[in-house]
Amino acid sequence: MVKVTAAEVNKLRQATGAGMMDCKKALVEAEGDFDKAIDVLRKKGQKVAEKRADRDSSEGAAVAKINADNTSGVAIVLGCETDFVGKNDSFVTLANDLADIALTCNTKEEFLAADFGGMSVADKLVEQTGVIGEKLDITAFEKLDAPYVGQYVHINKIAALVGLSAKVDNAETLVKDVAMQVASMGATTLSYKDFDAAYVASETEARIAVIEKDNIELGRLGKTLKNVPSYISMAQLTPEVITKAEEDAKAELKAEGKPEQIWDRILPGKMERFISDNTTLDQEQCLLDQKFIKDEKQTVAQYVDSFGDVHVTGFKRATVG
Question: What pTM was computed for the model?
């Protein structure tokens, strides 16, 4: 049996991340040939990967990287099977090393084929599956290009990217705050203007049905009923709808006996409430229409406007699980 030195074992361990005993066995099997030993470990990884192919990589680490001039960003999730592995420092380091490579790629397919220390990223994942003993996979790959790109990562579970139309004063603060909003509130689109009319109509019908069903039970229990909205998106609030709402609000004020000279002070609040009650879909799914998490008195769009001539061009979100 060929003898291998501790230095040779350590060199292989540094190159592959495999355990000391696995590295020693691989070197012995390869008769001291370093490259063959790497191949031995890779084949072990393939066998483990085949056995665990049907496992769910629902845990892992989410990371984001931005290039030097802040014009391109990537967010990936390196998936594994258990939270224990996902929180391991060496696993998070691997995820960050992979994200550095991902930043140079435009698609997940290109990324998996890219070089990682003399092997493809896909082969590296197989190798590390053998090392760690859990199925590893890239479960999310999101790329974003814009005149200015920033990112925010929440405890390696959610990674968010945001693109701005220009680099303005304090752009770093703006882009981080909006990326934090993306991570926290889970918007699916930029604005209500992106919605398809058929989707809004279908969602309106479904939401009203749910509220009406809830109200039956609430009424039975003698509790306050939920408001049943007529609309759920600004896409539905046409000038005619807004005009009608104003007329209804004035009729209410008149019925309440409020002096007409003070209506101008009351109407803005009533209209603001009407819009809030009838744009629930926007507040849930549209980034710019959501209430800003750091100041709920304004929307994200209003917060962005406070930075001057700049707008959000897009965003991406990658999550573990």
Answer: 0.78
